[in-house]
Design brief:
The chain is built from no helices and eleven strands. It is mainly β. Strands 2, 4, 5, 6, 9, 10 and 11 form a seven-stranded mixed β-sheet that branches. The protein has a four-stranded antiparallel β-sheet with strand order 1-3-8-7, with no helix packed on it. The relative contact order is 0.32.
């Protein structure tokens, strides 16, 4: 089992920045990579970004390219999401995910989520 704990969510003004973190524990040796999804009220959960523990490849949703950056610290079993230029469409609960599948066909573990609120 892998447990994921997110941190760093909160309230920020439009145009501001936040950095989310997600730390994995348990059977972390099974993890191929980690990433982030988000879910806004009334909308389905959507993919945001992902990264392998090797650092490659990375992937981003078109809506966040150029504004968000995903990174990882393998020594800490932690992945980060640096969110810059936050916009009114970005508020959501952000969920950390982990996958043991190199094809990313399944996300095996999910965090409980951390909310991000953007004021305007």
């Amino acid at each position: 089992q892998v447990q994921l704990v997110e941190a760093g969510g909160g309230l920020v003004q439009a145009g501001g920045s936040l950095r989310l973190s997600c730390t994995a524990s348990g059977r972390t040796f099974r993890i191929y990579g980690m990433g982030w999804f988000r879910q806004a009220p009334g909308k389905e959960r959507e993919f945001v970004a992902r990264i392998s523990w090797s650092g490659l490849p990375t992937a981003y949703a078109d809506s966040v390219k150029g504004r968000f950056t995903i990174s990882r610290d393998t020594a800490k079993n932690t992945v980060y999401l640096q969110m810059n230029s936050l916009q009114p469409e970005d508020p959501a609960v952000y969920y950390c995910v982990a996958s043991k599948d190199s094809t990313w066909s399944a996300y095996d573990s999910w965090g409980q989520g951390t909310p991000v609120t953007v004021s305007s």
